[in-house]
Amino acid sequence: MVSHSGKKTILVVDDNPLNRELIIAAVESSGCRYEQAENGREALGKVKEQFFSLIFMDLLMPGMDGFETVRRIRAMEITTPIVALSALSMKQDKDRAIDVGCNAFVSKPIDLETIRDIIDDYLTRQPNCDVLASGAVKTVARPSFDFSRFRMLFVEEDPKRAAVYIPTMRHFGFTLRHVATCSEALDMLYQDSASVDIIISALYTSGIDALGLLAMVRRQYPDVLVFIYTEKYDPDMYQLAMLQGADGIFPASILDGPAVGMIESALYRRQQQSVMSGAGLTGQMQLAQAQLIAFGCEQPCLSCDLDFRNLRDAGGDIVRCRKFNHAGRCGFVLADIAGHDLPSLYMSAVFLGILTSCWDAYQQPESLLRVINSEFNKLGYSKSHVCVSAMLWDAPRRTMHIATAGNPGALLFERTADGLFSFHELEGGGMCLGLLPDHDLIGVSTVVCPAESYIFLSSDGVDKQTIQAAIASDPSILHAGCAKGLCRRILKHVDSDQQDDMVLLSYYIPQPSEPSELFNSFASDYDGVDRACSWAANILTHDRVPTGKDIDFILLVFREAMLNAVEHGNRHNPNAFVDVMVFITPQSVVIEVSDEGPGFDLDHALAAATSENQLGKRGLPAMFAVADIMTVEGGTVTMVFNKH
Amino acid sequence: MNAILQDKRLILQPQSDMVASQIEVLRDAVLAQMKKHPDVTGVILDATGVEIVDSLGVNLIIGIYRQAVAEAKTFEVINAGNRFIKVAQFFRFFSLFSINGESAAP
User: Fold this and answer.
1) At residue A111, what are phi and psi to the nearest 5 degrees?
2) Over the stretch B26-47, which tens digit does the pLDDT of each residue have?
3) From CA B50, how far away is CA B40, in angstroms rounded?
4) Which residues from chain A sit within 8 angstroms of residue B59, using beta carbons?
5) Domains (ranges, CATH) in chain A?
6) What is the value of pTM for the model shown?
7) Which site from A20, A236, A397, A585 is most exposed, i.e. has the minimal number of CB atoms within 10 Å?
8) Which of A550, A552, A563 has the CB atom closest to B54's CB atom?
9) Does the distance separating the beta carbons of B52 and A529 come in below 8 Å?
């Protein structure tokens, strides 16, 4: 579980409560969070579930002692610094502690100052692993692997982008030089090729582009690693770059996370030496994985919960959700990446790049999986595959669309009349993505979800019996009226001898909104536009419209917003809907028109709507001119009409 | 849509709003009438039956105007109601042709 606080978390393991209190006091005074464990077994459970920045470990404890606990933690390839605390003071005890994997040994008795110094010493070496409530990673932990050995040449012509990306790379420890263009990069190589180990370049720079640079480097400096980043995912470009021998190509949006895993992976393959321990590598992979399990909304959503539990190492599994419009159209994707090694992390990065690039445009789960499969096959990366489940929640229709490719079917827990929950397993299976081009072996189901039901998606590491058993043992967890914390509570029930990583997503189907005359759904066609306008004309009466506003103009631009939704958002899809919400206050009228499309860039669209073509193009200039405020967020166009 | 010939001018009388749901039928009818009467000296859009005009309707009106100008014919709108006038003002029709006998000062 990833901490949602910016603070680092320290694990305190000691059977003596007084010692724990003392250490905890020091931890808190250092501004860190803590978890505590009374014995080795409890400590092992916690390190499996959570990332810690530091562990204080008592060596003499009943049952599993500190030596054995540390040995097992290191066997799990967890690299968190461990400071042994013990009354044992013989040199052989210290040596034994270090031998099993402790980073330092401190003799008891201990005092507050000593503990604070240790915390300062260890935690100032690594920045926060700070995951925002939104799930967006603000800064990621610096890996234990020492990137400073490698000299990076960073190529970015745009000073604003350079100002963002370069500190990120430096944050990871790279020794970095910056040039603006690929031509300058080549000049630098000509002058001193030994001064560059890695090149990371923007795809396009003045003069030659990154593919040109790549071709020259591959020919003349084969030991130099070349990575290319792009502003957006472009499957053809990615395929071309990989064919030309790029060590990696990725969207700039993952430069601070999975991309670093790719770089580390390439370094490992290239060096083929023990410059980094397996433990360090896995620790980095686990951190990268934590970034792949992320919410898509800035505002906390009580309906959605995500969690994962990785065991021996990370598999690069992904769980993501995304809100497509204001009417309650949300997407969910759970991807179980095959393997537990570096290539699986590469697959994760590629998958995330494809997903973020095409999700808005392919919201329907089945079409989304087809597109991802097609893109994977274009890459020609045949060494791995991915099992994926995708869902689309359509709140106004109370419908969940589900597609699976190699993953178990969704599980629906539906509240019955007696207040209990009945259980249904929806269709799952299908063929994993990345194996066959253009396959149509995708499991598809659609279910109308009753209020207060729960729906689960999981990787095959979590079987339905586990979820059922967890709920049967504590039925109250389905009576909270939300999904928060649900996944973690269920994953706790998984057997400790489980061999596969587990990812779980749950979604709580809330009660529908109260029926309102100010909300309506319309078929996405021109007749639907006429019906919507008649409906709007009935509710936007003179007494409801802010003074100084002309109802005729409001209705005119409302009609244009509807046309925009039908023609451009839903692209005349006869099965789509347009959802309209009107909010009326004494000061303003707010109209939200939501379609099922990816939305559009308002500034760009307005700039393109010249006086010549504005008459027929979306009516955007009219909408923008009449509304006091106009915004586009996903598939929702919002117009605000204020009192003058 | 009705069409009347009067003093070598073609008067087009839509019987519905000029909005997306009606636009295909209206466009076909307008094109057919203009093709049928190539020798008229002007085209008049009689907006008596038109209350609402959306961007597609605006496009059609502009299309008729352009077609008329291309064929060296005059174009004007008559009997426009209040809502039609608002749209016409917003989209600056008056700078192109006269409406109800009014047009922008040269």
Assistant:
1) -130, 165
2) 999 999 999 999 999 999 999 9
3) 23
4) 615-616
5) 9-130 (3.40.50.2300), 146-275 (3.40.50.2300), 295-512 (3.60.40.10), 519-642 (3.30.565.10)
6) 0.63
7) A236
8) A563
9) no
